[in-house]
Description:
- This protein is α/β, with parallel strands linked by helices.
- The protein contains 16 helices and 24 strands.
- The chain has helices at residues 50-63, 75-79, 89-92, 117-127, 149-155, 179-192, 238-247, 251-256, 285-299, 323-332, 357-363, 462-480, 486-495, 501-513, 517-525, 532-538; strands at 6-11, 29-34, 41-46, 83-86, 106-112, 135-136, 141-147, 161-166, 193-194, 202-207, 221-226, 261-262, 266-271, 304-308, 340-344, 376-381, 391-393, 422-425, 430-432, 438-439, 446-449, 457-460, 554-556, 563-565.
- Strands 11-13-10-14-15-16-18 form a seven-stranded parallel β-sheet, with helices on both faces.
- Strand 19 and strand 20 (438-439) form a beta hairpin.
- 43% of the residues are buried.
- The mean pLDDT is 86.
Amino acid sequence: MDEGRLPMTVRATTDWGVxxxxxxxxxxxxxxxxxxxxxxxxxxxxxxxxxENFETAAEKYVxxxxxxxxxxxxxxxxxxxxxxxxxxVADLWVSQHPLPELDTEIPWEVWLQPAxxxxxxxxxxxxxxxxRRAIAFADVRVxxxxxxxxxxxxxARGASIAQLRPASSLNSNIFQVPSGVQTAAVQAAARRITPxxxxxxxVCLLDTGVKADHPLLRTSIGYRGAVGxxxxxxxxxxxxQMAGIALFENLPEIVAERTPVQLTIGIExxxxxxxxxxxxxxxxxxxxxxxxxxxxxxxxxxxxxFCFAMNAPDEPDDGGPSSLSSEVDELAFDVAGPRLFCVxxxxxxxxxxxxxxxxxxxxxxxxxxxxxxxxLTVAACTDLVSVPETHQPVASEGDLCPWSRTAVNWExxxxxxxxxxxxxxxxxxxxxxxSAAIGPHVDLCLLTTSSDSAAPLTLTGQTSxxxxxxxxxxxxxxxxxxxxxxETIRGLVIHSCEHTEAMRARATAVxxxxxxxxxxxxxxxxxxxxDRRRAMENxxxxxxxxxxxxxxxLRLNDDGNRAILGQMRYHTLP
Length: 574
């Protein structure tokens, strides 16, 4: 503990909350003010001389008469009837997640004021602990540190920590640094990246183009093309964002750490969506997709997964076939050369109101071309629920993200396929508890590459980001197992899926009212959320039967007037 400071927390006991105007000298350091109303607390590094000031201020408050001309200093502080005690981990904890067990080791984010960092480092040195280099913002330092809660109870006595959180898997704090610092960090990360060997499997982005000179992308871009009147450069920014999601599994970690990165896949870019105002004539989206696929396959012979993280909002969302979905179906199921397409389920438009996002999920149908039978259709779920204490996440952990569409309202007369196939992380939103206003938060988004040269990192989400991530997973499987067919890769991804507790709960609630549990869960979440590790192991280490062969299931009878069963294949299991 810093001998010159006392780690004290002022806690609310009434709905008045607490005031951060603590009685005492200016040497007192207010480290953080957390929560509101009855949950409010102020964490302070208290100068020992404050005790005397406290006594004086308290005496004046007690002596105050309501008809006195002036209220004493710190009247509001005492009027709120606060309680004061030594700071604990619970006082510093600002996450929605429960506090970890006393002896369970987890990764933590330690938030400090800049002036407090030397004091904290000194405490770490005394305890023999090592921490990562701090991520610096204008008024806060964030340090990653692993340890048990018992260790952090001792660290709290150092009177330096402002907040504690479980370490974010996004670590999107990187996004908040000044643009010059961000650019330098990205360039440093780029020097640590080794691109995949030439002709390795790739994610081919059918999008708005990709920024070719982005430091994190330029050595991995194997091909750029454009059809339908567009240019090679990313006019919208969407394609560059998808490139970062597809290529990197955890971009924040790559930027923040100093370890080398070996990539196993590359990326390709086909601009199939021209900028607004560009006249494309009779060139329909389906034709542009066909031309894009033909052009990249003619240019480079390599294994690839096509990522089509865009939709046709003007086409019906009732599950019936469209020209675009039919084209995707034909391209995917090409006897001469099957292709793997990952297609986004589409996003809700506008902002979901609090409490009704689930209803909107279920009344807005998956968009074209995601009804394609032979494409891997990706919707979006979320595990991102860490928000400030003044807010709560719109979507609960493990449920559909607030933007994702479903196949609940599809017209069954079309006999559509069961969609989506899988769901993946697409981010979340948060709602202000007091005002009910809904908005974004950096920790509820995904960090990715930007087409803006001045700010090479940006935030993204929704079903397009989920689709790009699944496409990246497919390409990495193709790199790991080059002999597997596109259909087999798709099967491995689906085979690795599991439904979360929130998904099962929603399907169970719906099934009580109408329909079956199986239908309820499939038309909202497909087969669930893929697991990267399980998908990789299923082809090698797990007990999984993979057979790649062909058969002709039907044939004409001897009279030639009726189709009958032709061939079958069976396997003896061990």
